[in-house]
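Lecture 7, part B: from sequences to assemblies.

Below are the input chains for today's worked example.
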Amino acid sequence: MSDDIGVIQTVDFFPPMVDDPYTFGKIAATNALSDVYAMGGEVKTAMNIVCFPQSWDINMLGEILRGGSEKVIEAGGVLVGGHSINDVDVKYGLSVMGTVHPDKIYANNGGHPGDKLIITKKLGVGIISTAHRVGEATQEAMDKAIESMTSLNKYAAQCCKNYDIHGCTDITGFGFLGHLHEMVDGKLSCKVYADQLPVFEEALEYADEFLLTAVAQQNRNHAGRFIQFDKDISFAMQEVMYDPQSSGGLLIVLPADQAESLLADIQALGVPSAIVGEMMESGDKEIYVTNLNK
Amino acid sequence: MITVNAIGDTCPLPVVKAKNAIKELNGAGTVEVLVDNEIAVQNLAKMAKQKGYGCKSSKVSSSEFHVTLEIGEASAATGVEDIPEVCAVVPGHKKNVVVAINSQRMGHGHDELGAVLMKGFIFALTQQDVLPTTVLFYNGGANLTIEGSASLEDLKNLEAQGVEIMTCGTCLNYYNVSDKLAVGEVTNMYAIVEKLTQADLVVMP
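Predicted structure of the full complex, as structure tokens:
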């Protein structure tokens, strides 16, 4: 818009992964707002996008929108309208407008060799939601997953402003490895320490019970040939690394000497986070998954 | 044998239903799972690999796949075996398509361009919904299945998906690279002739 204000315009919506409409509204909005944070921006306005069957109870839609609007308010944005259509299934999301200084937009592929990789939020919410859908997850696990999926990336993103962020993206449908593959972008390689990843223990359990998602397998088919797993990386851990995150955390790349300090800032907010890898010069594979402590 | 109908079920239900049927077997036996998409086939194959079950699948139509899980005495007793079974997806009514690659390059013209095109052709092959049954390599093509080939990953990917990769032994000898074969198996002229004559369709890039 001007030399010092750039506009970010995003849109994201999806079908429910939880039964409760209010919770679904919060998750969908948290996810849609996340794109702005991953680019280093501030949320300004948002518009609802709704598909809803006309024959259903309209109060349910009210609950979805209430959940969404609460998250927009928490983000510091203003809900300025939206559009709804009659459909056979429910879908909800937002188109979000944010602003950012044009020189401070985070690219998702801006890493340098030697940079460290920080992840926020635990992985595994996709497997837990899937297991819950077929009655195989504990309520406790599902509650933890919901809490994670409804936590805005706003606070971790604010911490980032004090550092020289080289690259940032939010982890959603392509899973940790799919989004990391985008970040590496064929120009670099990356070493990932699986034993450092924040992961929901229950997700590993359910993966071992083969409560596998279709999307994780699609992610594996898509990114698998760029990735090399050490022999001691378990099947369950691999599945979690491919697990689609309905509303995941940030993946941040920054200079090694700033990583510990940013991590401490984010952890001080109570956000599960860790340094999980480092960028390297381009090698045979894009991503090498290993354990730091053998 | 127990047959499980998981048509119309989204993941993870096909795997959950298969697991329940395997439990019902209470020992060695066969479980056939009917599913309507390839991803469900792959997820069943992953479980079979982890558990050490035999696994075969056939494509009946674009929306019907039959996956047969063989639960052996050993795997039924121990639950998990480390030795993964090969799980090939061999579509039932599929045409027998054989791809014959007789050069390192695709087409005639500039050699460098030809090499780029061949790499692209083999990659595109991995992305097809319907894969060929066999890919034959002879004469200059034999240089594509050896160590250092730019197409190695793609060919391993094809092999993992059940495509036969066969390279002419005479050709490997002639180019003195017999010890460098890195994917698939060595074949001879009889097998090459048989593959070509019995194919429904031969593709030569």
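Note for the exam: Residues 6-104 of chain A form a domain with the 60s Ribosomal Protein L30; Chain: A; fold (CATH 3.30.1330.10). Keep this in mind when comparing with the next example.
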